[in-house]
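Hey, I was hoping to borrow your eyes for a little while. I'm sending you its amino acid sequence along with the backbone structure tokens. Take your time with it, there's no hurry, and the full record follows here.
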Amino acid sequence: MHATRKLWTWLAVICVLSFSVLGWVGTEIYLTAPPIPKQVISTDGKILFSEGQVQLGQEAWLTAGGQQLGSVWGHGSYVAPDWSADWLHREALALRAIWAQQEFGKIFEQLNVRQQAELDAKLKNEMRVNSYDGKSGNITLSPARAQAVAQVVEHYVALFGDDPKLDKLREQYAMTSGRLRDPLDLQALPAFIFWSAWSAATDRPGETAISYTSNWPHEPLVGNTPTAGAGIWSIASIILMIAAIAGMIFLHSISKEAPDPTPPKTDPLFDLKPTPSMKATKKYFYVVIGLILAQVAMGVITAHYAVEGQSFFGFPLAKILPFTVSRTIHTQFAVLWIATAWLATGLYIAPAISGHEPKYQKLGVDVLFYALLFIVVGSTAFGWLGTLQHSGNDFSFWIGNQGLEFTSMGRVWQVLLFIGLLFWVTLLGRGLMPALKTPSESRGLIAMVFLAALCIGGFYATSLTWGPRTHYSMIEYWRWWLVHLWVEGFFEVFATAVIALLFTRLGLIRASTANSAIVLETIVFLFGGILGTLHHLYFTGTPTFVIAIGAMFSALEVVPLALIGVEAYKNYQRSKAAAWVQAYKWSILCFIAVGFWNVVGAGLLGFAINTPIALYYMQGLNMTAAHGHAALFGVYGMLGIGLLLFCLRGLSDRAAWSDKLLAPMFWSMNIGLAMMVFISLVPAGIYQAWASITQGMWFARSPEVIHSNLMETFVWMRVPGDIVFAIGCVFLALFAWRLLMGGKREQSALTPTAQTKRV
């Protein structure tokens, strides 16, 4: 107990210090973020963008699809361009062409080597000089550059409007015509994209050859190449990671772990009688399976749009289900079904652990279920309809689709979900309170479950921190608090503690050992994970020291994964500890799969893009998608399915249980995911990385690459993996249907007398 108390103290200290640093970084981002100009004017007095247009343009871009339609500073979807890189390249080419005509009377390609070199050097100087005046709040451009900007503005107005000349390009970008109907929005959108590109190329005040985005994206025309810090801190982070892994392996080798206890002769949970509130969680798990099927269907459609931008095998599907909607549902449902599975697990285990059913607990579980269902259906429907009807900026932000990846639901739905999560924490706390008050070996685990749940409910408040015109750098800062810390942080701590608690209840691990192990594991994970959040913010208009902190601490995130294989092997051994454990075989195998994908998806594929030098070239490319699919479904998805199966085991009639359906479900899902990632996404990401390194980010995201024969072949190579994966989802649905129908048939077959005797 004394050793465990010390670990809790260390955990508290690390959390306080880490969040203090993360909060300080946020204030520095706020103070040093790229300035938003009042006006962008030329030296001859022409106004290019007026006051407020950058902020209005940001709203318009998010309404038009935002991060579901291309990206800015590398964050978003992958079919359309990164608009900041696209603008930067187009403006540089236009300015160089204007100078070639003005100074030599020829197009640039017809100039000799000396003349081309002269204009290239002039271009870099022009694009990198910071002409922002802090007193007036204006950005001043030369007349030639103002002319180049006007040309790019014309292109963007036509693209996001309905100019038929760009129909082919819109199809390649998976865009629909007339994305912005309001003339004011259409004129303001280029102001925001210009500002994002200006921030990416303009030197920071008092510095040379370092832009506000640390020279991202790679664009040789304007001298955007990796900074020295990106290379140095990448090397340092790798060295630190290797040293930390070696230290962890050494400590593990000299530590003496108590052996697992002798398992009970019979299943300790066999005679567990589900309480009314526990039974009420069953419908949550069926909704989870429905969301999985819907997410997979939307994923198939979204992936196909990479080949046919507006059609699905010739059918003009984009008229009713555009790419921005299908991708929004695909990403949003992934988070929602995983979260729902974990929330329901918490509600299921609380009375089982404490042996206490609080008054009105079932009513609370039912109310929460229908509230969450209302939020899911409402946010999806209003986001979909708002996109189709072009309902405007205010509608999109408050009740429609905010245009932000993984946090796209309108603000009203976010507020309702926040209230729902706090209600969930209350229900969970009521169920666990008797166990928390009673001294026992498991009390530390139960406390960890409740504290993680409290953080899950509380930290969702970070989704309410930005407004429609908040600085884009700050939106990204707070968005990653939610996506990284909420999903990848506290949910993982919660799930890990729940699994340990379940294993102790089954008598497969010692409660005293699990207490210390979970606290220690949480310390190791959060020590790197909290400040590791910053690896998402290397190039989002943040100070240069963010690269150093993010690189070093994100490298530490990989360290605990080095021993995941050991834990997975122990879980495999526990699955054979006694004959009755086979009843939980597929739940335990799902937990073992979590260990595999933690190493492969989160570890190998994650670290492949996490170092600053790697992410500089690969941010916003398909290597990110490979990591996202392998980590999000492989780790969190399989964890959710494992918990779902465990709970359904206790809620369903054992005669209706079918391992014959679970076997193909498990193997099809994991094999299909591996095929999808390694046959399609990883090769596509490597090809794009080559394009980014050799020519620039604009080229890696251009139609020339995205719709090249090789790239489209990689997209088609997803089909076999998608089919195998989808078969696994169908088997899961069939299993759930059999479980449901088998239980109903048995119940209807029982006579009232038999039912009474059984009770």
